[in-house]
Predict the structure.
Amino acid sequence: MSNYSLFIIIIIYLAILFYIAFIAEKNAKSKWVNNPYIYTLSLAVYCSAWTYYGSIGIAANSGMQFLPIYLGPVIAAPLWIIVLRKIIRISKQHKISSIADFISLRYGNNRFIGALVTVVCLVGIVPYISLQLKAVSETFEIMVDESSYISKTIWDDSTFYIAVLLAVFATFFGTQATDASEKHRGIVASVAFESVLKLVFFLVIGLYVTFYLFDGTTDIYDRISSVESFKSLSTFGDIGNGFNWFFMIMLSFLAIFLLPRQFQVSVLENNREKYLKQAIWLFPLYLLLFNVFVIFIAWAGKLSFSNEVNAEYYTLLLPLQQDNTVLALLVFLGGFSAVISMVVVSTLALSTMVSNNLIIPYGFLDKFSKSQPEKNAKYIKVIRRVSIFSIIILAYFFYVSFSKALSLYSIGLISFVIIAQLAPSFFIGIFWNRGSSRATKVGIIAGFLITLYTLVLPFVMQVLTGTSEFSDYGLFHIEALRPSALFGIDFLSPPAHAFFWSLSINTLLYLTVSLMFKGNYRERNYAEMFVDSKNYASLQDSALVWKGEAYVSDIKNVLNRFLGEQRAQRALSIFFTKYKLPQDTQLADARLINFSEKLLTGSIGSSSAKILISSVVKEEQISLVEVLKILEESKETIASNKLLKEKSDELQHLTNRLKNANDELILKDKQKDEFLDTVAHELKTPITGIRAATELIMEDTDMPAEIKIQFLSNILQDSDRLSRLIHNILDFEKLETGRQELDIQQYDIKETIEKAINGVSQIAAKKQIDIITKNPHKCKLNYDEDRIIQVLTNLLSNAIKFSESKTGRIVVDYKLGNASVEVLVSDNGRGISDKDMDFIFDKFYQTSDQNTIKPQGSGLGLAISRQIIKKHHGKIWVKNNQKSGVTFGFKLPFD
Amino acid sequence: MKKILIVDDEPNIVMTLEYAFKKQDFEVYIARDGSEALQILKKDVPDVVLLDIMMPNVDGYQTLNFIKEQDSLKHTKVVFLTAKNKASDIEKGLKLGADKYLLKPFSVKKIVSEILELLN
């Protein structure tokens, strides 16, 4: 096959891919483009030329060693539901545009970390891309049978043209939009298409080799078993090999998350979290299908060719041997698909990192300040295009200088080990909020350097010096520093060995430094948001605590530059509407700052967005100190705080109740003291009278008889007063403490009133005062008759006491009220002064306005009456009559 | 002849004191509360006032204050006769300027001798 015709086929194929991407982009919302199967197939970008060709090489030379690279992802797949979902959620929340963005944002939007991750990825992925170029180049040569021809300049080298072709393709393919967080539907669709092609073609060649060239799997097995080296090709080896397996599985486990192209398709291009449900079983199935025929093709190749032939290309060589050019072409296109998808997606991811995390934040930012939005968008696009192009060309030169000497498999592993250095800060960081930016820097740099020393340097030295002196004897010939056997660990394969040392030290440093030094407020804030992504989903805009000053107009200017006036205006007005702020708000708050940063993040990455926004914002860092303390608290302390608060509220409540009870007790105590004081005073008065009069009668023997009689009568009066007083005090005390039970029965109120009137009729008659009853009707209800008579007697004797003799007139009436009976006793006396009105029912209160002769009250009558009525659940009151006198009334309920 | 004003709202008590002081050849004035006492004090100048404290309208303290304010009454002695027997009450009474503080219930003989002693 001539190289021109193959070139033309390649170009046609690329055109088809372009067309698919174009159609998909146009129907970006269609279900053909958005479904879990497309998503899963796009994840198969994992299977690059390394899988397509490299696996067979390994299977042919080292047996089962090719498997761990697929076992890792298979083991990882079930975990996607938890881990990948969380990563996707975080990335969506923060409009993450690459893995560098992700890690740098987790550690407080740290610019250096973003750049560091970008560099690590570049160093890791450029050789990986060169591996793809190597595969295309070598298969191209096989197809056109150019192996005899040795190129002298790059202009004669077909690989160079393929590289340029790929670069041009990737450049235009990957950079349609400036907003890197926008989805690339076209690319995803074409990657999915390529995934189908490479699998189908690989299965076709597998079936062809196994069942057409040979008589099925048993035939191949029978034949290969007779070969000497068979045993080592079909078994798993010793314990050292076991470790190799373990580390290889771990390595690929990490790679499926961390490879920039995997992050791109699995996280950034994911538009529904639920796709993961299908992906976790479909993707392992895809990998399984891909590996079914690997071992048989490898054995078949081994049976068909001598050992000099590169086993990696058995899939091409076997059909070519049979002169089946069409099948070989299909296989070539399958491999080419694997290459294209890997290169396009990888360079897309890398270029985003390079522009957003390296070039823009470190220097290019000023360029944007004064130009127009279209120009800025163009700038960004140009940066990305140049990046993609340069990366591929760089990969080409890497290929020319180094890759020719290495197998696909070993280059791939170097990439994996380098990329794996991101693992501690990435994985631990999303589950542990203590992980700090300093720890990330130290960990990644240390791990990266160890990888360089143990894995990259030996091979570079070998290429440069032409001897394996460095790898055989170590730095300065120190045994412990042998790059493939550091400190005597010599039973691992070089990649496993490098992986073990670099990742152990990386992780150890990450954990130790994190525990030793706390990050600043900003990164702890982000840490909290990442670790606790679920809770922050709803309040993310206000989660970032920020205190400073910025004007909306300044921020708007920045947004205008990158989004264009229209988009900026629209975004702001949406923002204001969402938070119910007036459209002409002058001062920006934390939410707006956050919102704007996020808007810009999509275009220029989070680090750059942060720098741009902070250029128009005056931050007051010190004032955040108090807020820090709040942020520091983990979920648990917040929960226990809540509990504490509840407890303290409860305690507060109890304290209040205690305080109230205590206040009441103090008041009661004071009242009791006052009561006793008054009682003592009241008791002393008649005793004084009795004491003095008795003394005089006894001592003064010549006292006139009439005076003696007067004194004796006084003594009698005082004695009565004393006993009445004592009786009333006890009575009152019983009623007030509730020890006195009522004897409630049915009585007729009319009869009761008559009984009471009879009781006082004598003293009334003495003063010639009339007592009149008005209501002739009977009225039965339940009450304690003796007690009500007591009340009535009290009211009647008061009325008599305060009425003028002869003119005095007392009216007793009762009427049916609402579910109660109302009894009224009114007189035509002097009435009660306003100042007495309020206290008249208080114990020992005696009006200052009494008759000239001191009334013989105990001062407890009305107080007792009130208690009695209260015990009947009734009400007692007093009011002055309009003309003259006063009316006392009480109400008794029917039940 | 010595003049005494007895101010108390308990008639039975007043009666015993009136009898006892009359026997000692006192000219006895009687007031049933502070306001009545003031009426009397505006016209007459007794040598001694026997004063209850807890009385309606104008109480014993107010009456004492009135006496202390009147220049005409500067030689009039004031003796509280009350049931208020707490130390704080006694202190208050003496502080206001009472010459003696006597407690109820009392011995009539004792009251008389206290008054005589005060006046000599």
